[in-house]
Protein 1
Amino acid sequence: MKHYYNSLGGGANEVAAGYSKGTALGAEIIGTFVLVYTVFSATDPKRNARDSHIPVLAPLPIGFA
């Protein structure tokens, strides 16, 4: 395993067989959007003023995303 790490310059990430790099890029974009949208919606100050009991639960959806 150390041989692969050293010969590849510290990483060996690749797209699984049967998927293109474009498909992997699309999945990364969608996953990043879901995470950022969840963080922004869970920490929205207008929402916190309206639902004062919710901020304690904000880490839960962020963790699931």
Protein 2
Amino acid sequence: MLRWACRRCVVTRTGSTLPAQIWVSLHDNVCLRHNLWVGKNVFAPEQQLDPSRTPDVIRAQRRCWRLRRRYGPILIALCYDGTGKLWSGLAHRDYQLVHRA
């Protein structure tokens, strides 16, 4: 999948502020080195947000990488697909999350 590279990684590696696109896997959503969201719905490098206020997102990215190393990218891609279909089905049925404190 072609996505915008982390803008801070581009500057670090090239010394240039020009944006770059790279091939990444479906599961690469957060640049863990620079804490920037580089995943879905980022259509320009300026849209890369800092997910520091949501540490669950950063933890989930780390966990996804560990699972990918342990079980392989094919199984993780199948899990991603299945989970996406599950949430899509729940949303279609007007399922609402209940936040518990």
Protein 3
Amino acid sequence: LVDLDGYFDVVVFSSLFKKCWQELRIGNAIVVKGRRSNNSKKSDKPGIVASQIYTMDEIQHSFVKQLELHVMVDELTDERLFGIKNILERYPGGKECLMFIKNDEEVIPMRLEKKVEITKELIDALSTLIDKESIKIGVKNI
């Protein structure tokens, strides 16, 4: 496999391989859960013994729990709030949406009424109104 830091070896035993062999193709993005390999060859390349392999769709549906919007109080105009509301309404779904309103001294969390389907398109639409760095996706532990 390859990640942002380079290549590494992943050992997938036959029982796990039988379950997920179709996902193990070049170009497929996956998440591997496992433990560090105790490679007896002491190669420079790191290794992992896989215990679970997840597709990005599985991560999206099983582990993503909420959308978080972190906004400074002085950036919240009526126009911007109305725009955020309209965008969220265009992406209905089952994930919670939280807004964290910040000022210099405190953060006020607010749970929004609308539940959303978190997609790239939703993030792109929201980033026209608020800084992309202020949009976070909350996940459960894998």
